UniProtKB/TrEMBL annotation:
The lineage of its organism: Bacteria, Pseudomonadati, Pseudomonadota, Gammaproteobacteria, Enterobacterales. It comes from Trabulsiella guamensis ATCC 49490. The record marks D149, T150 as: Cleavage. This is L-asparaginase. Pfam families: Asparaginase_2. Substrate binds at R178, L179, G180, D181, T201, G202, V203, G204. The active site is at T150. Residues 1-23 form the signal peptide. Its EC number is 3.-.-.-, 3.5.1.1.
Amino acid sequence: MWGIIATWRMALEGVAASATALAAGKAAAGAVVDAVAAVEDFPFYKSVGYGGLPTENGEVELDAAFMDGDTLAFGAVGNLVDIANPVRVAHALSRQRYNSVLVGQGAREWALSQGFAAKAMLTERAMQHYRKRCRETLDKGLSPYDGHDTVGIIGLDCHHSMSVATSTSGLFMKKRGRLGDSPIIGSGFYCDSETGAATATGVGEDLMKGCTSYEIVRRMAQGMTPQQAADSVVCELEDKLMSRFGRAGDLSVVCMNRNGEFGAATNIKTFSFVVATASQPLTVFRAERIREKTHYQPVDDEWMQAYAARIRAPIEE
């Protein structure tokens, strides 16, 4: 038994390679880190890693995390600047008994001291997006906060071990130093090999209000299926936010239990995820919620072609 599930179509290529590795007996930890790193390295994904969208002052601050479901060890970085593959730094930090969460300059200094490569992460294409968004939002008096798609990947290996990893450039036009849910244990990710794992994407400020990933794993431990746990947590959190806070941002999650069963839930119209298991061929699904239950179906070739064209399209300036 093995399995891997990830948020968003952008994870497909990394998941495909790691699914093959898991099927061949590779450990979950390395599989999820490699799959996330593949997303970080691709410059056309503007919400993760190299080419990620910048803060309001034009700097790319990256967040990432890793958690080992066997030991519950985790590592995370926040506001990391100009270091390649933040997820690999987070993975290395998970091996530290203390100081396993580092942010800002301290995170950068530690990464460099450990031999991680310095790399300018802001690309010209990302700056073109930045200038275009400014014209469409700030120049018109509209909110600039858009573009917050975290890649989160869960792996289950043939030895019954589980791991999860996340990476994001965070909320577009965020304030310098802002952290969302992605590097926060229990909110953006949680993993326990005895039960399962979950990871989230969306508006971090709202996802953190429900300790979303931990709550999904907790409900699976109490007997819910992954799909039941995902749907119930997302629906209840959205209802609570609407009644108590007056609004709710984008909330999307994926999860998997120790048996390789998976679930996904969302409150938006365009959430996609990627999954492969010993019994489920590699598939990109598109999910939508209908009457408090999430329904999903495989995307077709037309959808895939439109996606590829969209992310590579020239940016009109």
